[in-house]
Specification:
The chain is mainly alpha-helical and 259 residues long. It has 2 domains: 147 residues, Rossmann fold (3-Layer(aba) Sandwich), CATH 3.40.50; 79 residues, Arc Repressor Mutant, subunit A. The protein is 42% helix and 10% strand. A 3-stranded parallel beta sheet has the order 1-3-4, sandwiched between helices. Helix 3 links the parallel strand 3 and strand 4. The termini are far apart.
């Protein structure tokens, strides 16, 4: 039996959240970086508060194009492994999408110019080869998105199909059991996971490979190289994300909400 599983993660956009992104950046993935076509790529993003109770605001001094490049650099740093760089593989894929596209010829020309500027900016960078050199435009208010959306969906499926992972059935069984445990407990000791893995027929010496794979999928969180965390397996990453959201929350400033 072959099962295809695709996990979708929505990364928070404001810069204050960037520190939370590296743990979720993996090589077997397609990353979509979106920007608003109605905004100037050389213009700076709006300021925001870190919580609804905060009096001070954060001002982002980066332009939109700088933010896009920074996100590409993050993906390259944390998702492209050293051996991949040596083998010159093309994983992961980075796709840039322009939003708020209405479909007029003038908008298409303006969008083409913005993409041209962006692709010129990343020329000769270490991550250039991972960026898909195509223009994707989405109409946020249309149910069909735009004629570009169908091509975007087709290309994403093609990218994902080109990077399949075949795993033993024992790994899939462990995944199912850990997800069931995650409905009741957010994390458990590594030794507890060892017991469950043994029941699934996974040898203890192979368990770390299984957990690293499930970590890459976002099913669990396991940090093998962290002395403080390597004896703990997080079974419900979604709860961790929710807790982080409670601690770090970007909201519009008062003047923006009035306007």
């Amino acid at each position: 039996m072959i099962a295809e599983v695709t996990c979708i993660w929505d990364f928070a956009g404001p810069p204050i959240y960037y520190i939370t992104h590296p743990n979720s950046l993996k090589s077997d993935a397609v990353y979509l970086i979106e920007f608003n076509l109605m905004e100037n790529m050389q213009g700076k993003k709006r300021k925001c508060k870190i919580s609804r109770m905060a009096k001070e605001t954060m001002t982002n001094e980066m332009t939109i194009i700088q933010i896009i490049k920074y996100r590409m650099e993050l993906i390259f740093t944390y998702a492209v492994q050293a051996e991949q760089q040596q083998l010159k593989t093309k994983k992961p894929k980075i796709v840039v999408v322009g939003t708020h596209f209405k479909g007029t010829s003038d908008e298409k020309e303006q969008a083409a110019e913005q993409f041209r500027i962006l692709f010129q900016e990343i020329k000769s960078t270490p991550y250039e080869s991972y960026v898909v050199r195509k223009m994707y435009l989405i109409d946020n208010e249309s149910s069909s998105g735009s004629k570009f959306q169908e091509k975007l969906e087709q290309d994403i499926c093609g990218f994902l199909n080109a990077m399949p992972n075949t795993i033993p059935l024992t790994w899939f069984n462990l995944q199912r059991l850990l997800q069931e445990m995650g409905e009741k407990e957010m994390h458990v000791d590594y030794d507890e996971v060892c017991k469950v893995a043994t029941q699934c027929g996974i040898l203890k010496e192979n368990l770390k490979h299984t957990l690293n794979y499930l970590h890459d999928l976002g099913i669990v969180m396991y940090f093998q190289d962290n002395r403080q965390l390597r004896d703990t397996v997080v079974l419900n990453p979604r709860k961790v994300s929710n807790i982080t959201e409670e601690l770090i929350t970007a909201v519009k400033t008062d003047d923006e909400m009035v306007s």
